[in-house]
């Protein structure tokens, strides 16, 4: 494998001095893409990515990169793309993610999070009026009622059905409650702008003290609050109540609370259901048990959101109590 990667890299980037170079596999997230770091004897290396067409969003990576570059969002530079071999070489920005800053003093963390929110704001300021037809056509399908409903189904299928102590008939009955369809229709009816779709701390690299967004191939039209909720109710990191409130206040500093808060809490509930579905599927169905450790903080965050918005999914809340879930070491 190493010799194949180095040979492909030599052909793709002939100016690189690869004598003595070596490769290192990079642990991936929940995708089917594979990443290797090409270490060079001198100077920064490059990142080699191999992708497939099994997931449509894999094919959206390069178009999304081009769109974000036009907008001015900080992302790794694409050095070469071989569309036939489905191989991409990227600028190597190091190994430090925003999630790795969890132990840093709050002043340092807050600065990085504010800078990340500023990068996201560039995306959120972009609507179809700012994009050309070809750019719009190459985006992933927008957040509409069917996509919100799909995320909810994903939560029920891969998390609640699997972990609930309630009888399956109760879970099916809950799924039929109108509050879920109402949440989907309410969010779908709102104006949309460009969003990252998976903005969380493991998808932000810190390079030279600044954030760079990665894994943005899900770029699509949706609600900015969905991205902000993804980042600030991220199950991979912990915030105190005051820390999260400080960042929320910063993110919405130009808007009245009564305008953004109801949408933000609805988006947070929607996003956290999607995340729990993903952890359940990855952990149980695909055998990626390391993802099960993220279920407890995701549940805590979802409970916090629903406690803050009693009118959002009130019938779901009792199903999320610890006694209503199978422990299995994760709930």
CATH superfamily of the largest domain: Aminoglycoside phosphotransferase (APH), C-terminal lobe
Radius of gyration: 21 Å
CATH class of the largest domain: Alpha Beta
Order of helices and strands: HEEEHEEHHHHHEEEEHHHH
Largest sheet: 5 strands, antiparallel
Mean pLDDT: 95
Secondary structure tally, helices: 11
* Classification by helices and strands: alpha+beta
- State which percent range the strand residues make up: 5-15%
Helix content: 40-55%
State the CATH architecture of the largest domain. Answer: Alpha-Beta Complex
In spatial order, strands of the major sheet run 1-2-3-5-4
Number of strands: 9
State the end-to-end CA separation.
39 Å
Q: What is the approximate shape? A: globular
Pick out the low-confidence regions: none
Task: Give me the CATH fold name of the largest domain.
Answer: Aminoglycoside 3'-phosphotransferase, Chain: A, domain 2
Q: Give the tally of structural domains.
A: 2
Summarize the structure in words.
The chain is α+β, with helices and mostly antiparallel strands. It has 2 domains: 2-91, Phosphorylase Kinase, domain 1 (2-Layer Sandwich); 98-324, Aminoglycoside 3'-phosphotransferase, Chain: A, domain 2. Helices cover 44% and strands 12% of the residues. It is built from 11 helices and 9 strands. The strands form 3 sheets. Strands 1-2-3-5-4 form a 5-stranded antiparallel β-sheet, covered by helices on one side. A two-stranded antiparallel ribbon has the order 6-9. Strands 7-8 form a two-stranded antiparallel sheet. The longest helix has 29 residues, at 257-285. The protein is globular and about 60 Å long. The two termini are 39 Å apart. The mean pLDDT is 95.
